[in-house]
Amino acid sequence: MIRHNLKYKLLALSIAIVLWFYVNKGYNPIVTKEIPRVPLVPRKVEPGMIVTRMPKTVRVVLEGSREHVNATAADVDEMLVHINLRGKGPGTHKVPVVVVPPTSYAGLVKATPEPREVMVTIVREAQRTMQADVEFAGTPPVGFRFGAPEFTPPRAVISGLPDRVSRVNRLTVTVEPAQLREGVIEGDFTLSAKDKDGKEVQGLRINPAKVHLRLRLEQVPATRVVFVSPNIVGQPPFPYRVSEINVKPQVVTITGRPERLMQISAVSTQPLNLTSHTQTFTQRVAVSLPPGTSVADARYVRVTVRIESPAESATPQTESPKQ
Questions:
Q1: pLDDT (tens digit, 9 = 90+) per residue, 274-288?
Q2: Number of Cα atoms under 13 Å in the Cβ half of residue 276
């Protein structure tokens, strides 16, 4: 009797299991679902290499029970779709796509990328070391100017695609007069890579990204335009003589304290010795500046000395007409 009942019990259990699979398959069947645009991530890129061309997204086909497929699709942000670029140097490579489903559904859902392989182009990264510079977003107070900037560190390294690195003309920080505190601008400023037109070049790495800047405000010295007087030493050997002296430019602009400039109406040149000259000549001569002044434009002038011989300086006589 017990054995007879055992057979019925085993039969009932088998029927229950079959019914469970049948019902479960009806309510939770095996399905496939396509996710059209899943971000593709490059991983393990070799140092000094940059990926310049690759698909941004791929399709992923999920296969499994409807419950698990729908749950995986809803949690697609946790899915990792990547390519492994370890050991890949400059050039174009065909690389397999790897899909890692969310951890909760690993082994329960089959994820297949479409396409299964992608083409990837890699180039070697370019680098340049550049001096930091200041770009002013305004003007200093009237009568003042900004002094020489003090950067720490004074240089930075820009890295990126070769064509972008080559476009960089200046590496700057931007300051505004409103940042002045007791005549000084000081702080940490972010560096920006600019091209020759002053536009920022995007997609570059700058190391360090920030530099410390100290910038002092200086009083602008007064200016005055004065004549240049050549400092002539000696005379040409006899019988030659100087007939004319020209200076170009005839005036220069000097800077200094106002009370000092009021005392100066002309400046001289360095000595120009004529004792060995017998012909007209032109010579570049430095301007000699009075103490406490500096020149704002030309540091040198050109002095032309016209020298004549007795024959050249003789005045020709005109004969009287015959009667």
A1: 999 999 999 999 999
A2: 2
Distance CA 172, CA 189 (A): 9
Model pTM score: 0.53
Q: Please answer whether residues 149 and 189 qualify as being in contact, where contact means their C-beta atoms are separated by less than 8 angstroms.
A: no
Tokens 């890699």: give the residue: 122
Domains of the chain (ranges, CATH numbers): 28-124 (2.170.120.30), 126-219 (2.170.120.40), 222-313 (2.170.120.40)
Residues 6+ apart with CB under 8 A from 44: 84, 85, 86
- Predicted confidence band of residue 315 (pLDDT cuts 50, 70, 90): low
pLDDT at 9: 64
C-beta separation of 267 from 296 below 8 A: no
What is the pLDDT at residue 23? 54
**With contact defined as beta carbons under 8 Å apart, do 121 and 91 qualify?**
yes
d(CA 192, CA 194): 6
